[in-house]
Amino acid sequence: MMRAIIVDDEPLARDGLRMLLGAHAEIEVVGEAGNGIQALALVERIRPDLMFVDVQMPEMSGLELAVAVSTPDHAPAIIFVTAHDEYAVRAFDVHALDYLLKPVDE
Length: 106
Known about the structure:
Layout: E1 2-7, H1 11-21, E2 27-33, H2 36-46, E3 50-53, H3 62-69, E4 77-82, H4 88-93, E5 98-101
Helix pairs in contact: 2-3
């Protein structure tokens, strides 16, 4: 089972993604964060396999978060989930697994 966290500053977006992921038994959502700073602490504590990350967030962008969590001893896979298509190239520069545009549906 893959352990995942959701990082988005919009609670409704987190709720919707959690609901969609609930249909996939192979993914367990083990935490959520409303910004990149909270996500950093969560990653250190939980050490998820997978992260679903918004790009534009206060304090630390999703792209900055991706760089910060990419350490030699543990680098979770990152799927960006955003309403902004203009960051796709940069997302793959920081080794994104995928880039999904909101609204996300099944």
